Amino acid sequence: MIKKITQSLFAIIVILTLISCKNTKQKLQEYVATYNSTAPSFKAENVTLTTARGYINDNKIELRFETNLEQNESNKNATIKRFPDLLREMLNKDQIPKELVNEGVQFDVYFLADDNTVFVKEIVNAETMPELIKK
Questions:
Q1: Is the C or the N end of the chain the one with fewer CB within 10 Å?
Q2: What is the pTM (predicted TM-score) of this model?
Q3: CATH number of the domain that residue 41 is part of
């Protein structure tokens, strides 16, 4: 009798464990929803708004950082130098989850001028992440 109860409890535990495991697509959706809900509290120099958009079929997340900077060569050069630091900080704080990157999710990250033109675009994936972290 005790053996049957133990077997039943073990089966229930295994089923619950399998049900509670999330696949990459679910994690991607959850990340985008959480990121967008906490975006108003995001603080970075010159950033006025940040948003995330998920592309489930492409296994990709697009992060956009809108700024109050005018599109010109001086601001573009400064942004190119500072942007990797922001990405490194976000990776270290798990604001860009290494787990998702290691599962094959690619982050296309855009830093935009005040007119929504692109200052700089970085791709964070399993190949580029180690380089971004060590800089």
A1: N
A2: 0.80
A3: 3.30.300.250
